[in-house]
């Protein structure tokens, strides 16, 4: 552990040339306050007050919300508390990220900037393709500690942002970067202060308070390959009256990003090897198999029996058949969109998909306040963002809808007719699978319109230093999602069951047997089987909140302060899918039902700050903070949360802090009210992954192969197919369902930390500071579904949880198969499951060196910042009766969950007058694949360590103009292959773009 820590915080050994432009991404030392005027250049990150004790959470004066005290000093409020204090340092670990640091990452999306901090695990974002990416559709969420994006709360100036999904998750990209002064991140529970959802922590975006003038910022960037352009431009301006009583700020911004498809990166050439192929395949029915002799006759060049009568048979361009498994007699393409990987004819779907989605975003923000008197200041705020995003998920496939063809269809090739005629019932319809390569790619067009309007009043209550703040907020998110084109199952079947091949329904009919034949489809028939499919969501949140805070009485160590907050919040949701989706009549899309629901909560909360000792021997200060909240939910009832925290500074240069928090997360509308909603889960390919019943699986060939075979039959694989059964795709359908019987999750969070800033006389060491914080979070009654791949592993005893191979196993009951043995659904209702717990340690080093003290270097300075996260444990149990399983040091591709033991971001900065130059180092430890835990007998390959370096630079021309530029992923590090599956990775965790650059300019007037 010590050697790893040393590696994370000793970047100085890289040499003076390894330096990072702009302030460090994570900042914790207090900064000198920049002037409010827009023409003043913000200070560098290392400008600290030498006599002040640095602490994570020490607020930047320009960034905080404040209230004037009776003495004229500005009290401040730090994220994690409602109480304002003039000397505030947080008892909870807080990482503060400044605006210039966000810009220095080169990202046009704010979540990509924050995800570089080790405390975050990349949640859903801009990158990644496929059905799961279409579900997020350009939303960008944050995931603290890997506990899920539903378990951290995102705020704007201490107030909740509009939810972007039925699960109350916030799309952080609705916040314009131009208005952000800083981002404060509490990495620990905070429900006692902010209410539900703050289990893993809080991310609070602080807006800029005062601007006099106009600021314009523009940035453009691309990959070095020139294939993914991204641009961002914003304008922000403000005005403050001469008497300082009226203030207004307004901003507007525009972001545009091009698409990057999998076909533009060779990494994805074998990504998502689907067995749904453009040639189409005949699927023999287990109850009406052709004769082996007829199949042998169709393959005269192969020994009798080599191609089993149970094999899926594809269609060559010359009318002959080929066996998909084994690729026998295959004469089709083997490059580009078609491969014969593992001697199975497949299509690498990732080549067709967006790995970086195109989007356009417009955002507007304005706020104003007017001080009528000390007793009342009126304020208003408005936010509006429109995002248009596209997700290309490739050509539709026939998953979830059977394609039945009449034996009278005139397009049936002679080779297949002979096979069909040998069946016991030769006149029965038959089924095929195919990918609709003759049609345009299936694209999800999604638009989000997010708005928030706030009006309120604040002021002094007229006694002591007591103040009040009351406001009302109306939030709305309207989402339109279209699938274009959606292929209609009933229309396809009408054409294929028509005696004339559908010619009477549309010109030429439809010949699905082979790529070339399908490509001849007429425009009329293409229009007949497709249409635009629409989905509509309306998400609303209304909040009324009132708060008072101030001093109760004085103690020798200072004032005892308190705050009381009352809140009423209601959430509503409506989802209206297309009628074809409700009917389950759209290819490659699960049947989806309408959902409607509403919840509300009434809350009362109180917080108390008690200064116990001050300026005593061994007690420079000793303070205690207590808090409690009672929340009454209309669906799940009442629940208490509370906190007890303390901070002890034995001497000025040392701070010890710690606390205990009881946090909750109430079930949201999606978890309570969701109608059965389909999704897809990737399970990979045999032998290491895939369906355990597949004969190619290692599970079918181990010591318990006979028991597993029997279980496969008992759970739906026909006995006539079980010895040749292949599940020839890499994904399974699952159905999630809401549950009104859910109860809130409950979490206990413990934190202990130490902050050190030695008061060295030497100017080289004067600005050296270090912090270490331990956290322990334990959640019970976890609200979740069982993961689809976990259900398979546990049913079929791949992790030892069903040693009797019993078909009555709880997980086996979730799995449904069709008459071919294929998995048609895994039922995954929301449940209060077992538990989730994690613990670890965060380290931070900040060091600013004035180089002028070392030689004739003027005001040159070097700064070093390193944020390191060590994961000691991450454990899950699915049910209360289960044992916890340890997942520390694993990576889970299905659930996009990397859990490395060590993560760190180390930055440095060399400033020479008006120039900054440098380097940022991001490190991720190597990890075992998650299958080493859920099926230890046949684990997939893990991943090695991953390191990325970024170069940046900044030039201050004068007080009005500033230029920045940078190169990200300097060494062009390729993404890592996850789970040993070619083309499978975690975008956001591993860079799929490659070496990229950006240039930007900021002008102030």
Query: Which geometry do the CA atoms define?
Result: elongated
Strand content: 35-45%
Class from helix and strand fractions: mainly beta
What share of residues is helical?
A: under 10%
How is the main sheet built?
A: 22 strands, antiparallel, barrel
What are the segments in which pLDDT stays under 50 over at least 5 consecutive residues?
A: 2-73
Alpha-carbon distance between the two ends: 50 Å
Features:
1005 residues, mainly beta, 15 helices, 10% helix, elongated
Model description:
It is a single chain. With 1005 residues, the chain is mainly β. It has 15 helices and 49 strands. The protein has a 22-stranded antiparallel barrel, surrounded by 4 helices. The protein is elongated and about 95 Å long. The model is unreliable at 2-73 (pLDDT under 50).
In a few lines, what is going on in this structure?
The chain is 10% helix and 42% strand.
Task: Furnish the topology, listing elements before pairings.
Layout: H1 2-9, E1 65-68, E2 74-77, E3 94-98, H2 99-104, H3 110-114, H4 130-136, E4 152-156, E5 159-160, E6 180-186, H5 191-194, E7 201-207, E8 213-223, E9 230-240, E10 246-257, E11 260-261, E12 273-274, E13 281-283, H6 292-298, E14 313-315, E15 321-323, E16 339-341, E17 344-348, E18 354-356, E19 359-373, E20 376-392, E21 404-405, H7 414-421, E22 430-433, E23 443-460, E24 467-487, H8 489-497, H9 515-519, H10 523-529, E25 530-555, E26 558-577, H11 579-582, E27 595-616, E28 619-633, E29 637-649, E30 654-665, H12 669-673, E31 677-682, H13 705-714, E32 731-737, E33 745-756, E34 769-780, E35 783-784, H14 788-795, E36 815-817, E37 823-829, E38 831-832, E39 835-850, E40 861-877, E41 885-886, E42 890-892, E43 897-899, E44 902-912, E45 915-924, E46 928-929, H15 931-934, E47 946-956, E48 961-968, E49 996-1004
Parallel strand pairs: 4-7, 32-37, 42-46
Antiparallel strand pairs: 1-2, 3-6, 4-5, 6-7, 8-9, 8-49, 9-10, 10-19, 11-18, 12-17, 13-14, 13-22, 14-15, 16-17, 19-20, 20-23, 21-22, 23-24, 24-25, 25-26, 26-27, 27-28, 28-29, 29-30, 30-33, 31-32, 33-34, 34-39, 35-38, 36-37, 39-40, 40-41, 40-44, 42-43, 44-45, 45-47, 47-48, 48-49
